[in-house]
Write a structure and sequence with these properties.
The protein is an alpha+beta fold and 424 residues long. It is built from 18 helices and ten strands.
Protein backbone atom coordinates (compact mmCIF):
# COMPACT_ATOMS: atom_id res chain seq x y z
CA UNK A 1 0.00 0.00 0.00
CA UNK A 2 2.81 2.44 0.86
CA UNK A 3 4.62 1.65 -2.41
CA UNK A 4 1.45 2.25 -4.41
CA UNK A 5 0.76 5.49 -2.58
CA UNK A 6 4.34 6.64 -3.19
CA UNK A 7 4.05 5.94 -6.94
CA UNK A 8 0.73 7.82 -7.05
CA UNK A 9 2.25 10.81 -5.25
CA UNK A 10 5.18 10.88 -7.70
CA UNK A 11 2.76 10.92 -10.66
CA UNK A 12 0.79 13.77 -9.13
CA UNK A 13 3.99 15.73 -8.46
CA UNK A 14 5.16 15.20 -12.07
CA UNK A 15 1.74 16.29 -13.36
CA UNK A 16 1.83 19.54 -11.36
CA UNK A 17 5.44 20.26 -12.35
CA UNK A 18 4.58 19.72 -16.02
CA UNK A 19 1.59 22.00 -15.68
CA UNK A 20 3.66 24.80 -14.14
CA UNK A 21 6.25 24.53 -16.89
CA UNK A 22 3.57 24.96 -19.54
CA UNK A 23 3.84 21.43 -20.87
CA UNK A 24 0.97 19.45 -22.34
CA UNK A 25 -1.19 17.75 -19.77
CA UNK A 26 -3.49 14.85 -20.45
CA UNK A 27 -7.04 16.09 -20.63
CA UNK A 28 -6.09 19.72 -21.44
CA UNK A 29 -8.06 21.35 -24.22
CA UNK A 30 -6.49 21.99 -27.61
CA UNK A 31 -6.78 25.75 -27.14
CA UNK A 32 -4.91 25.53 -23.84
CA UNK A 33 -2.10 23.52 -25.39
CA UNK A 34 -1.83 25.93 -28.33
CA UNK A 35 -1.69 28.95 -26.02
CA UNK A 36 1.08 27.36 -23.90
CA UNK A 37 3.09 26.64 -26.99
CA UNK A 38 2.47 30.13 -28.32
CA UNK A 39 3.76 31.73 -25.12
CA UNK A 40 7.09 29.95 -25.50
CA UNK A 41 7.73 31.70 -28.82
CA UNK A 42 9.25 35.07 -27.90
CA UNK A 43 8.94 36.48 -31.42
CA UNK A 44 5.26 35.55 -31.56
CA UNK A 45 4.60 37.18 -28.18
CA UNK A 46 6.44 40.33 -29.26
CA UNK A 47 4.36 40.48 -32.44
CA UNK A 48 1.18 40.02 -30.40
CA UNK A 49 2.17 42.92 -28.14
CA UNK A 50 2.74 45.18 -31.18
CA UNK A 51 -0.62 44.23 -32.72
CA UNK A 52 -2.46 44.79 -29.42
CA UNK A 53 -0.69 48.15 -28.98
CA UNK A 54 -1.65 49.39 -32.44
CA UNK A 55 -5.20 48.12 -31.92
CA UNK A 56 -5.54 50.07 -28.68
CA UNK A 57 -4.14 53.19 -30.35
CA UNK A 58 -6.62 52.78 -33.23
CA UNK A 59 -9.57 52.26 -30.88
CA UNK A 60 -8.75 55.11 -28.48
CA UNK A 61 -8.13 57.43 -31.42
CA UNK A 62 -8.42 61.14 -30.69
CA UNK A 63 -8.46 60.67 -26.90
CA UNK A 64 -4.73 59.87 -26.87
CA UNK A 65 -3.39 61.70 -29.93
CA UNK A 66 -1.50 64.96 -29.22
CA UNK A 67 -3.69 66.65 -31.86
CA UNK A 68 -7.33 65.87 -31.06
CA UNK A 69 -8.88 67.93 -33.84
CA UNK A 70 -10.88 66.08 -36.57
CA UNK A 71 -8.48 64.11 -38.81
CA UNK A 72 -5.54 65.53 -36.73
CA UNK A 73 -5.51 68.31 -39.28
CA UNK A 74 -4.47 71.28 -37.15
CA UNK A 75 -2.00 73.11 -39.41
CA UNK A 76 0.74 75.53 -38.41
CA UNK A 77 2.50 76.58 -41.61
CA UNK A 78 5.09 78.47 -39.58
CA UNK A 79 6.18 75.13 -38.04
CA UNK A 80 6.44 73.15 -41.28
CA UNK A 81 9.01 70.32 -41.47
CA UNK A 82 10.20 70.53 -37.87
CA UNK A 83 12.64 67.90 -36.58
CA UNK A 84 11.59 65.28 -34.00
CA UNK A 85 11.45 66.51 -30.39
CA UNK A 86 11.21 70.13 -31.55
CA UNK A 87 9.32 72.52 -29.28
CA UNK A 88 7.24 75.62 -29.90
CA UNK A 89 5.45 78.08 -27.66
CA UNK A 90 1.84 78.95 -28.40
CA UNK A 91 -0.63 81.62 -27.41
CA UNK A 92 -4.16 80.28 -26.96
CA UNK A 93 -6.86 82.88 -27.57
CA UNK A 94 -10.35 81.73 -26.67
CA UNK A 95 -12.98 81.78 -29.42
CA UNK A 96 -15.89 84.10 -28.71
CA UNK A 97 -18.47 81.49 -29.60
CA UNK A 98 -20.50 78.94 -27.69
CA UNK A 99 -18.96 75.45 -27.68
CA UNK A 100 -21.16 72.39 -27.99
CA UNK A 101 -20.29 69.76 -25.36
CA UNK A 102 -18.90 66.50 -26.73
CA UNK A 103 -18.93 63.19 -24.91
CA UNK A 104 -16.02 60.82 -24.45
CA UNK A 105 -17.09 58.35 -27.11
CA UNK A 106 -17.90 61.09 -29.62
CA UNK A 107 -14.45 62.58 -29.09
CA UNK A 108 -12.86 59.14 -29.37
CA UNK A 109 -14.53 58.52 -32.74
CA UNK A 110 -14.61 61.97 -34.37
CA UNK A 111 -12.32 64.26 -32.40
CA UNK A 112 -13.27 67.72 -31.20
CA UNK A 113 -12.85 71.28 -32.38
CA UNK A 114 -10.50 73.46 -30.39
CA UNK A 115 -12.23 76.13 -28.27
CA UNK A 116 -9.35 78.52 -28.94
CA UNK A 117 -7.11 79.90 -31.69
CA UNK A 118 -3.49 78.76 -31.41
CA UNK A 119 -0.73 81.14 -32.53
CA UNK A 120 2.92 80.02 -32.58
CA UNK A 121 4.85 82.86 -30.97
CA UNK A 122 8.51 83.83 -30.62
CA UNK A 123 8.20 86.04 -27.52
CA UNK A 124 5.62 88.02 -25.58
CA UNK A 125 5.31 90.97 -23.22
CA UNK A 126 2.48 92.29 -21.06
CA UNK A 127 1.44 95.87 -21.76
CA UNK A 128 -1.04 97.02 -19.09
CA UNK A 129 -4.27 95.06 -19.76
CA UNK A 130 -3.02 93.53 -23.03
CA UNK A 131 -0.40 91.04 -24.23
CA UNK A 132 1.83 91.79 -27.20
CA UNK A 133 3.33 88.84 -29.04
CA UNK A 134 5.72 88.37 -31.95
CA UNK A 135 4.55 85.53 -34.16
CA UNK A 136 7.00 82.73 -34.96
CA UNK A 137 8.38 82.63 -38.51
CA UNK A 138 11.24 80.13 -38.28
CA UNK A 139 13.72 82.49 -39.93
CA UNK A 140 16.84 84.03 -38.39
CA UNK A 141 16.30 86.71 -37.25
CA UNK A 142 12.66 85.88 -36.49
CA UNK A 143 11.18 89.23 -37.66
CA UNK A 144 7.61 88.13 -36.98
CA UNK A 145 4.38 90.11 -37.01
CA UNK A 146 3.45 91.93 -33.81
CA UNK A 147 -0.04 91.25 -32.51
CA UNK A 148 -1.83 92.67 -29.47
CA UNK A 149 -4.65 90.87 -27.59
CA UNK A 150 -6.69 92.01 -24.64
CA UNK A 151 -6.06 89.79 -21.59
CA UNK A 152 -9.73 89.10 -20.99
CA UNK A 153 -10.19 88.17 -24.64
CA UNK A 154 -7.34 85.68 -24.34
CA UNK A 155 -8.48 83.95 -21.16
CA UNK A 156 -12.28 83.98 -21.66
CA UNK A 157 -14.85 83.58 -24.42
CA UNK A 158 -16.42 87.04 -24.29
CA UNK A 159 -19.83 88.36 -25.21
CA UNK A 160 -18.76 90.91 -27.81
CA UNK A 161 -22.03 92.84 -27.48
CA UNK A 162 -21.12 93.88 -23.92
CA UNK A 163 -18.17 96.30 -23.58
CA UNK A 164 -15.29 95.66 -21.20
CA UNK A 165 -15.33 98.06 -18.24
CA UNK A 166 -12.00 99.14 -16.73
CA UNK A 167 -11.57 100.92 -13.41
CA UNK A 168 -7.97 101.38 -12.31
CA UNK A 169 -6.52 97.86 -12.51
CA UNK A 170 -9.89 96.07 -12.30
CA UNK A 171 -11.67 94.77 -15.41
CA UNK A 172 -15.34 93.80 -15.61
CA UNK A 173 -16.57 91.77 -18.60
CA UNK A 174 -19.28 89.30 -19.58
CA UNK A 175 -18.58 85.87 -21.05
CA UNK A 176 -20.50 84.09 -23.78
CA UNK A 177 -22.26 82.00 -21.11
CA UNK A 178 -23.81 85.12 -19.58
CA UNK A 179 -21.57 85.24 -16.49
CA UNK A 180 -20.04 88.52 -15.34
CA UNK A 181 -16.43 88.40 -14.16
CA UNK A 182 -14.38 90.93 -12.28
CA UNK A 183 -10.62 90.37 -12.47
CA UNK A 184 -7.58 92.47 -11.75
CA UNK A 185 -4.94 92.89 -14.45
CA UNK A 186 -2.42 90.99 -12.32
CA UNK A 187 -4.81 88.04 -11.96
CA UNK A 188 -5.43 87.96 -15.70
CA UNK A 189 -1.70 88.05 -16.42
CA UNK A 190 -1.14 85.13 -14.07
CA UNK A 191 -4.02 83.21 -15.64
CA UNK A 192 -2.69 83.80 -19.16
CA UNK A 193 0.83 82.71 -18.22
CA UNK A 194 -0.39 79.50 -16.57
CA UNK A 195 -3.06 78.39 -19.05
CA UNK A 196 -2.68 80.25 -22.35
CA UNK A 197 1.08 80.15 -23.04
CA UNK A 198 1.95 76.44 -23.24
CA UNK A 199 5.07 74.94 -24.80
CA UNK A 200 4.25 72.00 -27.05
CA UNK A 201 6.64 69.23 -28.06
CA UNK A 202 6.38 67.57 -31.48
CA UNK A 203 7.86 64.17 -30.67
CA UNK A 204 8.15 63.04 -34.30
CA UNK A 205 8.29 66.51 -35.83
CA UNK A 206 5.84 68.06 -38.29
CA UNK A 207 5.06 67.59 -41.97
CA UNK A 208 5.20 70.26 -44.67
CA UNK A 209 1.81 71.60 -43.56
CA UNK A 210 2.88 71.93 -39.93
CA UNK A 211 0.75 69.00 -38.73
CA UNK A 212 1.92 66.74 -35.91
CA UNK A 213 3.42 63.59 -37.47
CA UNK A 214 2.87 61.43 -34.38
CA UNK A 215 -0.86 62.21 -34.37
CA UNK A 216 -1.08 61.44 -38.09
CA UNK A 217 0.64 58.07 -37.63
CA UNK A 218 -1.54 57.13 -34.66
CA UNK A 219 -4.77 57.99 -36.45
CA UNK A 220 -3.50 56.39 -39.66
CA UNK A 221 -3.29 53.08 -37.81
CA UNK A 222 -7.09 53.23 -37.48
CA UNK A 223 -7.45 53.34 -41.26
CA UNK A 224 -4.95 50.54 -41.86
CA UNK A 225 -6.37 48.18 -39.24
CA UNK A 226 -9.94 48.94 -40.32
CA UNK A 227 -9.09 48.11 -43.92
CA UNK A 228 -7.42 44.91 -42.79
CA UNK A 229 -10.30 43.68 -40.64
CA UNK A 230 -13.21 44.68 -42.87
CA UNK A 231 -11.57 43.68 -46.15
CA UNK A 232 -10.63 40.27 -44.74
CA UNK A 233 -14.17 39.84 -43.39
CA UNK A 234 -15.57 40.48 -46.88
CA UNK A 235 -12.99 38.14 -48.43
CA UNK A 236 -13.75 35.37 -45.92
CA UNK A 237 -17.50 35.53 -46.50
CA UNK A 238 -17.19 35.35 -50.28
CA UNK A 239 -14.26 32.92 -50.35
CA UNK A 240 -15.66 30.44 -47.83
CA UNK A 241 -19.08 30.48 -49.49
CA UNK A 242 -17.84 29.89 -53.04
CA UNK A 243 -15.06 27.48 -52.08
CA UNK A 244 -17.26 25.31 -49.87
CA UNK A 245 -20.15 25.19 -52.36
CA UNK A 246 -17.83 24.33 -55.26
CA UNK A 247 -16.09 21.49 -53.40
CA UNK A 248 -19.19 20.03 -51.75
CA UNK A 249 -21.46 19.86 -54.80
CA UNK A 250 -18.75 19.25 -57.43
CA UNK A 251 -19.62 18.54 -61.09
CA UNK A 252 -20.87 21.53 -63.08
CA UNK A 253 -21.14 23.72 -59.96
CA UNK A 254 -17.46 23.21 -59.24
CA UNK A 255 -16.53 23.80 -62.88
CA UNK A 256 -18.52 27.04 -63.08
CA UNK A 257 -17.17 28.48 -59.83
CA UNK A 258 -13.60 27.46 -60.64
CA UNK A 259 -13.92 29.09 -64.06
CA UNK A 260 -14.98 32.33 -62.37
CA UNK A 261 -12.15 32.04 -59.80
CA UNK A 262 -9.57 31.52 -62.55
CA UNK A 263 -10.85 34.53 -64.46
CA UNK A 264 -10.51 36.77 -61.40
CA UNK A 265 -7.18 35.12 -60.57
CA UNK A 266 -5.78 36.03 -63.99
CA UNK A 267 -6.33 39.77 -63.47
CA UNK A 268 -3.50 41.57 -61.63
CA UNK A 269 -4.68 42.40 -58.12
CA UNK A 270 -3.73 46.06 -58.16
CA UNK A 271 -5.35 46.71 -61.54
CA UNK A 272 -8.53 45.01 -60.34
CA UNK A 273 -8.58 47.11 -57.17
CA UNK A 274 -8.04 50.29 -59.19
CA UNK A 275 -10.87 49.34 -61.57
CA UNK A 276 -13.27 48.65 -58.67
CA UNK A 277 -12.22 51.91 -57.02
CA UNK A 278 -13.03 53.84 -60.19
CA UNK A 279 -16.50 52.24 -60.23
CA UNK A 280 -17.27 52.76 -56.53
CA UNK A 281 -15.50 56.10 -56.25
CA UNK A 282 -12.77 57.38 -53.96
CA UNK A 283 -13.31 57.31 -50.23
CA UNK A 284 -12.91 55.58 -46.89
CA UNK A 285 -15.53 52.85 -47.22
CA UNK A 286 -14.95 52.31 -50.93
CA UNK A 287 -11.40 51.14 -50.18
CA UNK A 288 -12.74 48.44 -47.83
CA UNK A 289 -15.04 47.02 -50.47
CA UNK A 290 -12.50 47.29 -53.28
CA UNK A 291 -9.78 45.46 -51.35
CA UNK A 292 -12.20 42.85 -50.00
CA UNK A 293 -13.57 42.05 -53.45
CA UNK A 294 -10.08 41.24 -54.73
CA UNK A 295 -8.72 39.10 -51.88
CA UNK A 296 -11.36 36.37 -51.72
CA UNK A 297 -9.78 34.25 -54.47
CA UNK A 298 -6.99 32.93 -52.25
CA UNK A 299 -9.51 32.03 -49.55
CA UNK A 300 -11.82 30.27 -52.03
CA UNK A 301 -9.03 28.11 -53.44
CA UNK A 302 -7.78 27.08 -50.00
CA UNK A 303 -11.29 26.34 -48.73
CA UNK A 304 -12.10 24.31 -51.83
CA UNK A 305 -9.02 22.16 -51.38
CA UNK A 306 -9.76 21.55 -47.71
CA UNK A 307 -13.41 20.69 -48.30
CA UNK A 308 -12.47 18.28 -51.10
CA UNK A 309 -10.26 16.38 -48.66
CA UNK A 310 -12.96 16.26 -45.98
CA UNK A 311 -15.94 15.52 -48.23
CA UNK A 312 -15.21 11.80 -48.29
CA UNK A 313 -14.68 11.42 -44.53
CA UNK A 314 -16.85 9.01 -42.57
CA UNK A 315 -18.55 11.64 -40.44
CA UNK A 316 -19.57 13.59 -43.56
CA UNK A 317 -21.02 10.43 -45.13
CA UNK A 318 -22.80 9.76 -41.85
CA UNK A 319 -24.38 13.20 -41.83
CA UNK A 320 -25.64 12.62 -45.36
CA UNK A 321 -27.02 9.22 -44.38
CA UNK A 322 -28.87 10.76 -41.45
CA UNK A 323 -30.58 13.17 -43.84
CA UNK A 324 -28.91 16.37 -42.69
CA UNK A 325 -29.14 19.28 -45.10
CA UNK A 326 -26.09 20.40 -47.05
CA UNK A 327 -26.08 23.68 -45.12
CA UNK A 328 -25.88 21.88 -41.77
CA UNK A 329 -23.26 19.44 -43.02
CA UNK A 330 -21.03 22.22 -44.28
CA UNK A 331 -21.45 24.60 -41.34
CA UNK A 332 -21.52 22.06 -38.50
CA UNK A 333 -19.16 19.31 -39.66
CA UNK A 334 -16.85 20.58 -42.41
CA UNK A 335 -16.07 24.25 -41.74
CA UNK A 336 -15.03 23.75 -38.07
CA UNK A 337 -12.32 21.37 -39.30
CA UNK A 338 -10.76 23.79 -41.79
CA UNK A 339 -10.51 26.89 -39.62
CA UNK A 340 -6.77 26.38 -39.15
CA UNK A 341 -6.03 26.82 -42.84
CA UNK A 342 -8.52 29.69 -43.11
CA UNK A 343 -6.89 31.57 -40.22
CA UNK A 344 -3.45 31.21 -41.80
CA UNK A 345 -4.56 32.59 -45.19
CA UNK A 346 -6.56 35.36 -43.45
CA UNK A 347 -3.48 36.47 -41.47
CA UNK A 348 -1.43 36.57 -44.66
CA UNK A 349 -4.08 38.57 -46.52
CA UNK A 350 -4.43 40.96 -43.57
CA UNK A 351 -0.91 42.27 -44.09
CA UNK A 352 -1.42 42.38 -47.86
CA UNK A 353 -4.60 44.44 -47.40
CA UNK A 354 -2.73 47.04 -45.32
CA UNK A 355 0.01 47.35 -47.95
CA UNK A 356 -2.56 47.51 -50.73
CA UNK A 357 -4.48 50.31 -49.01
CA UNK A 358 -1.25 52.24 -48.45
CA UNK A 359 -0.38 51.85 -52.12
CA UNK A 360 -3.80 53.05 -53.24
CA UNK A 361 -3.60 56.08 -50.94
CA UNK A 362 -0.13 56.82 -52.29
CA UNK A 363 -1.52 56.84 -55.83
CA UNK A 364 -4.35 59.14 -54.75
CA UNK A 365 -7.25 56.70 -55.28
CA UNK A 366 -7.57 55.42 -51.72
CA UNK A 367 -8.40 57.33 -48.56
CA UNK A 368 -8.80 60.99 -49.41
CA UNK A 369 -7.36 64.00 -47.52
CA UNK A 370 -7.72 65.32 -44.92
CA UNK A 371 -8.16 61.82 -43.45
CA UNK A 372 -4.65 60.62 -42.57
CA UNK A 373 -3.32 57.41 -44.10
CA UNK A 374 0.17 55.94 -44.03
CA UNK A 375 0.27 55.87 -47.83
CA UNK A 376 -0.89 59.48 -48.08
CA UNK A 377 1.72 60.55 -45.53
CA UNK A 378 4.49 58.97 -47.60
CA UNK A 379 3.18 60.65 -50.75
CA UNK A 380 2.93 64.10 -49.18
CA UNK A 381 6.41 64.01 -47.68
CA UNK A 382 8.46 62.78 -50.65
CA UNK A 383 10.70 65.66 -51.79
CA UNK A 384 9.78 66.76 -55.29
CA UNK A 385 13.43 67.01 -56.32
CA UNK A 386 14.00 63.37 -55.35
CA UNK A 387 11.60 62.19 -58.06
CA UNK A 388 13.37 64.26 -60.70
CA UNK A 389 16.93 63.28 -59.75
CA UNK A 390 17.56 60.96 -62.67
CA UNK A 391 15.89 63.32 -65.15
CA UNK A 392 18.18 66.20 -64.19
CA UNK A 393 21.39 64.23 -63.70
CA UNK A 394 21.39 62.00 -66.78
CA UNK A 395 20.12 62.35 -70.31
CA UNK A 396 20.14 58.56 -70.87
CA UNK A 397 17.46 56.73 -68.89
CA UNK A 398 18.74 53.82 -66.84
CA UNK A 399 16.99 50.40 -66.67
CA UNK A 400 15.09 51.34 -63.51
CA UNK A 401 13.97 54.72 -64.90
CA UNK A 402 10.47 55.40 -66.13
CA UNK A 403 10.27 58.48 -68.36
CA UNK A 404 13.27 59.93 -66.52
CA UNK A 405 11.98 59.15 -63.00
CA UNK A 406 14.16 56.96 -60.80
CA UNK A 407 11.83 54.36 -59.32
CA UNK A 408 14.39 53.35 -56.69
CA UNK A 409 13.58 56.49 -54.67
CA UNK A 410 9.87 55.77 -54.53
CA UNK A 411 8.40 54.58 -51.27
CA UNK A 412 8.11 50.88 -50.32
CA UNK A 413 4.35 50.95 -50.88
CA UNK A 414 4.79 51.76 -54.57
CA UNK A 415 7.58 49.18 -54.91
CA UNK A 416 5.19 46.61 -53.44
CA UNK A 417 2.58 47.56 -56.02
CA UNK A 418 5.02 47.17 -58.90
CA UNK A 419 6.29 43.81 -57.65
CA UNK A 420 2.76 42.52 -57.10
CA UNK A 421 1.68 43.56 -60.57
CA UNK A 422 4.66 41.70 -62.00
CA UNK A 423 4.03 38.66 -59.82
CA UNK A 424 0.39 38.32 -60.80
Amino acid sequence: MNIGRKISDNKAFSWLRNLRRGGSVAGASLNTMVWRRFRKDKMAMASLVVIVLFTLVAVMGYTITPDSTPYCNQQYLELAVQKPMSQARFLYVMKNERQEPTGFFHTMAYGRKLPYYAYPIYNYTFVEDSIRVETYTGSVPNDGELKVFHLSDVAFALDTDVPILAHNDVLTFKTIDGETHTQTVKELQTMVEQHCLPTRTFYLGTDRYGRDVLSQIMLGSRVSLSVGFIAIAIALVIGILLGAVAAYYGRWVDSLIMWFINVVWSIPTVLLVIAITFVLGKGFWQVFVAVGLTMWVDVARVVRGQVLSLREKEYVEASKALGFTAFRTITRHILPNIWGAVIVIAASNFASAILLEAGLSFLGIGVQPPMPSWGTMVKENIPADALLTSCCSSSTPRPNDCYGLDLSVWNPALNTIMLEMGGD
